[in-house]
Amino acid sequence: MQSLGIDVLFKGTNFLRLLEGLWVAVRISLISVAISIVLGILVGILMTSRNMAVKAIFRVYLEIVRIMPQMVLLFIVYFGTTRVFGWDLEAETAAIIVFVFWGTAEMGDLVRGALISIPKIQYESAAALGMSRGMAFRYVILPQTIRRLIPLSINLITRMIKTTSLVMMIGIVEVLKVGQQIIEANRKVSPNAAFGVFAVIFLMYFLICWPVSRLAVWLEKKWA
Amino acid sequence: MADFSPERVGIVTESTGNEVLRIEHLHKEFEGNVILKDLNLTVRKGEVIVVIGPSGCGKSTLLRCVNALEDIQGGQILLDGRPVHSGAKDITLMRQKIGMVFQSYDLFPHKTIIQNVTLAPCKVQKRPRAEAEQEALELLERVGLADRRDDYPRQLSGGQKQRVAIVRALCMHPEILLLDEITAALDPEMVHEVLDVVLSLARSGSTMLIVTHEMAFARAIADRVLFIDEGEIVEESTDPKEFFTKPETPRAQAFLKTFDYE
Is the Cβ pair B120, A131 closer than 8 Å? Predict the structure, then answer.
């Protein structure tokens, strides 16, 4: 059997570099998720508004995010806006902007869905007990919304972590890019490195996303 | 039987004569359909009024109007002489005096039983937690559910949930209780445990406005029966036994006949 090409990872600091690359990917997704959750809650509440104009604006926003490939968004922000508006944007900042733009829309839609899934009579029984709208929202509606939301938003987190593999296209050296560099540098001595390195990267993504997705399943059961 | 005397339960009635609730010329319509027309009703302290009628006759809407869960298009609703209106500034204050129990219990699913019943006393009435909990436990004890204090609503049966819902309303010390078909969603064997609680509330002097389809219960508990059809009071009787055996109006006769299988 041919070599699996894993040996290259034990040369020099290769494995450490791979881990550093992984951290870049995780960092971008964590920062993006954190901002998206805050903005998404605001957007989600606005999306339940009865105002037609507000509804329409967020509808269009959501559709744009759904239709546009994330890569195109990355190119527009990193290569496009930097020239047109003449600002100096770090690649990582550009990536976070795009991920937040995407995450806020998806999160907003999840929040909207969770909010309207709370039965109207929950508002009414809170009102019948003399609670103001604010109190009902804070003590009755929001806690239930968040319980429904957490499993769904965790799925969004795993999708974001996976999608960070695109950011190497705007020059960010994350785990996939580091992998490519290692493979390129060892092309002569270890031609099978592509298999070993990418397999290890696959495992790394798995080890990060799997516990997160198990957590979602567990929470879903716990709060069902 | 549990002791629900006003002193124990803490139901307070301000001394504005004998009258607790007065409904004057109530008019309610929804999308052009008239649901209640020129309805008048006075409820005195300690009175138990049972409202019956065919489904869709407006009896549940009447209850929902009383605590302004529905807005009204004419007339007024006065509690202790003060108007109850959905847009009013003091509506949350007025609603504290009007306890309501719904058909589908509607406990807060994310809170335990004790949290369900003490949430509003602590947050709305700003009462000390220890005091609110002690009172809540006494009331839960009376409906036989003190040992379930730390369970979640989903762990309880329908009848148990409904008894908790009654306690949740009582913890606010309402002047009047509105019971909206509270046994309609229950399995038959659970109806009794809930109605027993309501009966003992009535005996201890609680003022109640009850919508129900349980005719035997209505007959046993009512000081006054209102038969509503098509948005108006068709027949009113202060003698429930008389009403249920020999209703005067043809519409009430026809309605009561639907409960017979002879």
Answer: yes
Q: Distance between CA B152 and CA B138 in Å, rounded?
A: 19
- The ipTM, to two decimals, is 0.88
pTM (two decimals): 0.79
The domains of chain A, with CATH numbers, are: 6-222 (1.10.3720.10)
The DSSP secondary structure of chain A, one letter per residue, reads ----S-GGGGSTTHHHHHHHHHHHHHHHHHHHHHHHHHHHHHHHHHHT-S-HHHHHHHHHHHHHHHHS-HHHHHHIIIIIIHHHS-----HHHHHHHHHHHHHHHHHHHHHHHHHHTS-HHHHHHHHHTT--HHHIIIIIIHHHHHHHHHHHHHHHHHHHHHHGGGGGGGT---HHHHHHHHHHHTTTT-TTHHHHHHHHHHHHHHHHHHHHHHHHHHHHHHH-
Residues belonging to chain B with any Cβ–Cβ distance to chain A shorter than 8 Å: 67, 69, 92-93, 95-96, 98-100, 102, 104, 106-110, 119-120, 123-125, 168-169, 172
Digit-coded pLDDT (tens) for B56-95 = 888 999 999 999 999 999 999 999 989 998 888 899 999 9
* Beta-ladder partners of B209: B49, B178
